Every structure is written in C-alpha cells, then in structure tokens.
Amino acid sequence: MSEVHDLLLPPAHRAGVSKRRPTGPVLTIHSGGRESDGLVPIADIGERALQVYVYAKDAILRAGIASQLRRSPDVALADEYRPDAGGVAIVATDELGEEVDTAIRAVRRSCTPRIMVVTNRLTRSGVDSAVAAGARTFIRRSEARPERLAEAVRQLATSDDAPRTVDECLGNLVSQVEEDSPNTIRPRPAGLNDRDMEVLRLMADGHSTAGIARDLAYSESTIKNIIHAIVRELGARNRAHAVAMALRSQMI
Fold first, then answer.
1. For 188-248, CATH number?
2. 62 within 8 A of 92, measured Cβ to Cβ
3. Measured in whole angstroms, how far is the alpha carbon of residue 37 from the centre of its chain?
4. What homologous superfamily does CATH list for 3-183?
5. I need a labelling partner for 7 at 20 to 30 A (CA). Which of 92, 112, 160, 208 fits?
6. What residues form DSSP beta bridges with 53?
7. pTM passes above 0.85
8. Of the candidates 22, 4, 174, 26, which has an alpha carbon nearest to the alpha carbon of residue 104?
9. So where are the chain's domains?
10. Does 40 have pLDDT greater than 50?
C-alpha cells in the first residue's frame, strides 16, 4: 500500500486496496524513494495533456472535481500513479486542517510539488499551515468550474518556482481569507516536539543560536540542527521566515 493511500483513504477502504490497481481519479502514488528520485521532467504542454492527480476524502467531491476536469481537452486525469514533477495534484476538501496538511506533505514527498487546494473556506491559520505543508495555490469550490480549474492547472504546471509568500499563493483570494477566532488557533505541526517549540519561541524573542544553546544547555551544533529541522518542517525559507509563519499562525 502506498504512503498516500494509507494517509488518505477512509479506513474501511484500506484493507483491500493493496491487492488491486486503483482506477479513476483517486490519488495513489508509490513511496519509498527520496523526493528527487525518478521524477519525470515537465512536458511541453503542446505535446500532451497535463497529468492531474486528484484527492478528496469524500468520494462525491472527488468525482465532482474529476467531472469538471474531464471537460478540458488539454487536461487528463492521471491513470498511472508515480512520482511526476511535471504533474499537478489537486487536494479537494470542505475546510483546511491538520489532516489536509498531512495529505499535502505526503503528495509533495511522493508525487509532485505542484499542489492546488480546492476548499470551501479559507482561514488565516489554515492557509498558512497548508502553504507551509506545500500547497502552492488555492481555489474556492464555488469557483471550481471547468475553465477555471483548467486555467489554474496550466498555470501551476508552467510555474517553475514556488510562490515566495502566502499572499502570492492566494492571489485574488487574499481578501476572502477569514481571520481566526480564539477557538480556531492552529495546533503545532505534528513534526515539532516541545523542545522544538521552545527553540522557536526563543528565536521569536530574538535570541541567537549561541544564546539559545546557553539557555537550554545544548551545544550550538545541536541547536543548529534543531533550527534546520524546524525550518524544514514548516516549509520555510530560513529561520526568520519560520518565526514569521509561527507567529502568523499563532503557534507561539
């Protein structure tokens, strides 16, 4: 069973999935290699249809996205599930959350870094966390018509670089993001432990690597490794970006 199957399929469907090849638009991709192993280069759009991998926990939602995509002649639902750097993955959901973040990270590791999220609701913490996990662009479900989906898929397939900011990922949806109420503060990512959070808080307070090492009684080398792990887990560009993301999503 692939990593993404294990993470994304409902429990009742997991038992028999490894004994048959999946059909339809369900995102099923093989894991086990490094992120750069076996990636297929981006194909020329004029030579073949763009390959799209679709995931939605709800089968009806998944079928709806697939139906919309099938109306576009230059977009094809992938029927072979493999690492594909030129492909585009669509993660469709009612709302953002930790489960969606886990799915995005699995897709990025095992299939493609070109990930679009289709969702009903955009919250500030949810968007920040999804972008940290690897999402590159967002579409509201109410706007996920065939032409809009196909256009977004083409733009994502031809973009070589990830957006530099959350607002770049959102585009014209920036004004539609809802600010979080106190009871919707996002929990910390699963990959960060109590020690990591303490280091992150000290970084936010302006402490240097040497100062953090002194305060926590660790070597500077250990603190550097912890900071590197934090930056990687949050999908940040550097330590300053990691702190900004943590503050914005109210993790600290």
1. 1.10.10.10
2. yes
3. 19
4. Response regulator (3.40.50.2300)
5. 160
6. 89
7. no
8. 4
9. 3-183, 188-248
10. no
Q: Report the amino acid identity of residue 104.
A: I
Q: Scanning the structure block, which residue is given the tokens 């009742």?
A: 12
Distances (CA, A) of 26 to 2, 109, 115: 12, 17, 15
Which string of DSSP letters, residue by residue, matches the chain?
A: --HHHHHHS-HHHHTTGGGS---TTB-----SS-TTTTPPPPPPTTTSPEEEEEEESSHHHHHHHHHHHTT-TTEEE-SS-S--TT-EEEEEEEE--HHHHHHHHHHHHHT-S-EEEEEEE-BHHHHHHHHHHT--EEEEGGG--HHHHHHHHHHHHT--S--SSHHHHHGGGGGGPBPPPGGGPPPPPTT--HHHHHHHHHHHTT--HHHHHHHHT--HHHHHHHHHHHHHHHT-SSHHHHHHHHHHTT--
Q: Which residues contact 84 (CB under 8 A, 6 or more apart)?
A: 39, 40, 51, 53, 78, 111, 112
pLDDT in tens, 157-194: 998 888 888 999 999 999 999 887 655 555 667 678 87
Q: Are 203 and 99 in contact (CB under 8 A)?
A: no
> In the structure encoding, which two tokens stand for residue 25, read together?
């638009």
Distance in angstroms (rounded) separating the CA atoms of residues 91 and 74: 20
Q: How far apart are CA 226 and CA 207, in angstroms?
A: 14
Q: How far apart are CA 187 and CA 251, in angstroms?
A: 6
**Tens digit of each residue's pLDDT (9 = 90 or more) over 201-245:** 899 888 999 999 888 878 889 899 999 999 988 888 899 999 888
| Residue 199, amino acid | V
